[in-house]
Amino acid sequence: MLSRNEIIANYPHNIDIYKVNEDTLGENYLNVTLANDLKVYTEPFLDIKKSNPTQKILIPEEGLVLEPGKLYLGRTNEYTKTYNFVPLLGGIDKLAALGMEIHVTAGFGDHGFEGTWTLEIVCTYPTKVYPNMPIGRLYYFPLIGDNSIEYKGKYLGQVKATESRIEREYVPKLERRK
């Protein structure tokens, strides 16, 4: 895992972070903050073979109470680009102690990924969140082996909270070309 000094040494060539300053860096991580918008799914059940509709919710300055048992798709304010390292998004222990998770399973980024980070937020108790609050930490691990393969996937360059795009994996290849 990279230390603070190594993160700084690799900025901006291998680790490029929009909206960062020395105060956002910890001993071996970069703090990331919550943007002011969330998405929620609007259907009573989700179908992995279809695009599931969402509704956008703005987080007002006075905060928004998140409901237990509901998935909220958020995003970081920070737009990152990472080369030669594998980023890992982790939660903040103070939020975890309140029963809040910021990613269900998708904590690792890819070599060559750039964009904001989509957050899969769930909470155990009704919890009030605020725009621009610290929400997570990015840790960086050296990439070992072939670094010529870069991420070129469906989330590249995202700047909004992005719902699942798994349905694209079920579209026959011939239909994708149309």
Textual characterization of the structure:
With 178 residues, this protein is mostly beta strands. The protein has one domain: Distorted Sandwich (Deoxyuridine 5'-Triphosphate Nucleotidohydrolase, Chain A), CATH 2.70.40.10. 8% of the residues lie in helices and 35% in strands. The protein is built from 3 helices and 11 strands, in the order αβββββββαββββα. The protein has helices at 4-9, 93-96, 173-176, and strands at residues 15-17, 30-33, 37-41, 54-58, 64-66, 72-82, 85-91, 100-101, 114-123, 127-129, 134-142. A 4-stranded antiparallel β-sheet has the order 1-6-9-8, with no helix packed on it. A 3-stranded antiparallel β-sheet has the order 2-11-7. The model has no long low-confidence stretch (mean pLDDT 87).
